[in-house]
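R.M. (postdoc): so does anyone remember the format we settled on? I'll just put the structure tokens first.
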């Protein structure tokens, strides 16, 4: 029950003003873990996917530009995402550190992040790589449901809400992501293999990469991430 002990520890602190980078293929559990860890450390959880989806929903200039790429499961141009991340991490709530969920996605973005952290005089990054096999990823993505109000993430097969189709926390009807169709999931997994997996070597060479077994229960995965941060 290490997970419970960790979750009950009050006021955990991310050592110094570091960035915690959450990596892993689509469906590995980056969003689920980022939310859990951010809540405990009381630092912002910055999801580039969520920021981009919001821009699409709001029909901003950025949203209109990236909509078709996202619907097709491709990666949004580096300069758009990198600029968005830099702007967000300069806000005062990031002073004590932040979590990046979904960034970087390729070597160019990783090099941008290195420079950005130096410029912001941060104490470097801790990079968590969540690992899960392809069958698990498919089941997780095809069964995912999200609360549009509080952002809670459920899964009809693996983490169902108490009342099917409705959020446990606020009772809102749950929604599905447009890119969670079989066809787009395949494209997203391909993009991961082509662009993101090769980027892991960058962090491996810098001895910053920490693999975490994502096949366990979410609370056990969270406990392992806490151990890494505390270590
Ligand atoms: P993004 O939103 O980042 O999507 P993704 O990387 O495809 O990852 P997901 O959000 O699908 O999965 P996740 O790992 O967060 O899993 P989750 O916790 O939800 O990006 C979307 C798009 O935006 C991209 O395709 C691209 O177009 C664009 N984009 C974003 N960032 C970009 C960038 N940097 N550069 C360029 N383009 C970018 O969990 C999934 C399911 O599994 C849930 O149902 C959950 O309940 C369940 N689950 C989670 N953990 C467990 C567990 N341990 N056991 C059982 N079930 C679990």
């Amino acid at each position: 029950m290490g997970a419970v002990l960790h979750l009950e520890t009050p006021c955990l602190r991310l050592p110094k003003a570091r960035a915690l980078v959450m990596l892993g293929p689509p469906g590995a559990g980056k969003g689920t873990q980022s939310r859990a860890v951010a809540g405990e450390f009381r630092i912002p959880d910055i999801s580039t996917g969520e920021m981009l989806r919001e821009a699409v929903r709001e029909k901003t200039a950025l949203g209109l530009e990236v909509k078709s790429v996202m619907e097709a499961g491709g990666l949004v141009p580096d300069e758009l995402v990198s600029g968005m991340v830099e702007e967000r991490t300069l806000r005062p709530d990031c002073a004590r550190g932040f979590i990046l969920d979904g960034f970087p996605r390729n070597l160019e973005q990783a090099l941008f992040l290195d420079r950005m952290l130096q410029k912001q005089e941060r104490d470097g990054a801790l990079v968590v790589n969540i690992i899960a096999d392809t069958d698990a990823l498919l089941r997780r993505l095809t069964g995912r449901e999200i609360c549009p109000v509080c952002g809670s993430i459920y899964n009809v097969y693996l983490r169902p809400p108490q009342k099917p189709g409705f959020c446990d926390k606020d009772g809102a009807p749950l929604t599905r992501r447009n890119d969670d169709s079989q066809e787009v999931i395949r494209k997203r997994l391909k993009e991961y293999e082509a662009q993101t997996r090769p980027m892991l070597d960058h962090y491996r060479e810098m001895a910053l990469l920490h693999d975490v077994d994502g096949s366990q229960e979410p609370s056990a995965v969270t406990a392992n991430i806490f151990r890494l941060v505390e270590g």
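R.M.: ...and that's the designed sequence above, right after the tokens. Also worth knowing: The two ends are 19 Å apart (CA to CA). The CA atoms of residues 15 and 230 lie 8 Å apart.
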